């Protein structure tokens, strides 16, 4: 499986990977490129308008990264969308892990979360995972799916994105049977009761969110 990791521009600690690994291809988005370099990783590609960097910081990126796509700040696609397009179309990723998607800003988070509904990306929905230090988000197309519990993530939520037909949760802690939602609906704080859980639906897109409460510092 060809995995591509994308680090978007958020420098916030909760948005960053818990462990940076150098054994996969990384794409740095805007300031995410600089963050990767600071963690000892030279991204395969840096992409964005780089308007969040100083001239000196951008020079550092250009001196270290072999391939850079710099675009005009006035554009139709977000920097993250450009990176995701490159991951699938240029690097032929079988799976993409996307980090740094919010930086604490809800508009950035929603832009990244909802881009999976765009037709050009929706075809790849099940190959995209969004990760921060408190959440793992996956996306699913219609059908029957089985997912596995992840150690440390207690909660399991199902978010219907648009009209979803016949959502069935047969073996989670809180069950649903053939639920029809004509509008987006969040079924939150469910839980695994076994190492795996099954669910199914017949139309639309569903986001599945693994989440956990961060320990409070004493």
Automatic annotation (TrEMBL):
Gene3D superfamilies listed in its UniProt record: Thiamin pyrophosphokinase, catalytic domain
Record GO terms (molecular function): ATP binding; kinase activity; thiamine binding; thiamine diphosphokinase activity
InterPro entries per record: Thi_PPkinase, Thiamin_PyroPKinase_B1-bd, TPK, TPK_catalytic, TPK_catalytic_sf
Keywords for the protein's UniProt record, in alphabetical order: ATP-binding, Kinase, Nucleotide-binding, Transferase
Pfam families: TPK_B1_binding (PF04265), TPK_catalytic (PF04263)
EC number: 2.7.6.2
One of the GO BP terms on file: thiamine diphosphate biosynthetic process
Cited CDD domains: TPK
Residue ranges constituting the Thiamin pyrophosphokinase thiamin-binding domain according to the UniProt record: 143-207
Coiled coil: none
Enzyme class: transferase
NCBIfam families, A to Z: thi_PPkinase
Protein name in the entry: Thiamine diphosphokinase
Biological source species: Pediococcus cellicola
């Amino acid at each position: 499986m060809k995995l591509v990791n994308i680090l978007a521009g958020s420098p916030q600690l909760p948005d960053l990977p818990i462990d940076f690994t150098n054994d996969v291809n990384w794409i740095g988005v805007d300031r995410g490129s600089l963050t990767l370099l600071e963690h000892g990783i030279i991204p395969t590609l840096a992409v964005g308008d780089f308007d969040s960097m100083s001239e000196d910081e951008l020079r550092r990126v250009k001196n270290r990264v072999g391939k850079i796509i710099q675009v005009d700040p006035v554009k139709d696609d977000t920097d993250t969308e450009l990176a995701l397009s490159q991951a699938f179309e240029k690097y032929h990723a079988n799976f993409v892990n996307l980090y740094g998607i919010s930086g604490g800003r809800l508009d950035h988070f929603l832009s990244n979360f909802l881009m999976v509904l765009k037709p050009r990306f929706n075809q790849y929905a099940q190959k995209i995972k969004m990760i921060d230090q408190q959440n793992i988000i996956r996306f699913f197309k219609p059908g029957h799916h089985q997912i596995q519990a992840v150690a440390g993530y207690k909660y399991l939520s199902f978010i219907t994105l648009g009209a979803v037909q016949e959502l069935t949760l047969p073996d989670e802690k809180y069950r649903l049977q053939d639920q029809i939602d004509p509008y987006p609906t969040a079924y939150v704080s469910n839980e695994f009761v076994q190492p795996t859980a099954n669910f199914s639906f017949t139309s639309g897109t569903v986001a599945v969110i693994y989440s956990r409460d961060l320990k409070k510092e004493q």
